[in-house]
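Here is the promised in-class demo. Please do not try to memorize the tokens; focus on the logic of going from shape to residues.
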């Protein structure tokens, strides 16, 4: 019985860890998207100024 409860606890902890990892990766992807948009905007601005 002890082995079964230990296995269940390990599975619960592992699933919680996976969920937390997914949440953190989603946040990181959103931040990276925002940074990409900012850099694209900066590149466009520099191109416009260089054409002048």
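The designed amino acids, position by position:
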């Amino acid at each position: 019985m002890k082995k079964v409860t230990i296995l269940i606890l390990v599975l619960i902890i592992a699933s919680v860890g996976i969920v937390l990892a997914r949440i953190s990766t989603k946040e990181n992807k959103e931040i990276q998207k925002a940074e990409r948009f900012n850099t694209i905007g900066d590149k466009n601005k520099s191109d416009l100024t260089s054409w002048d």
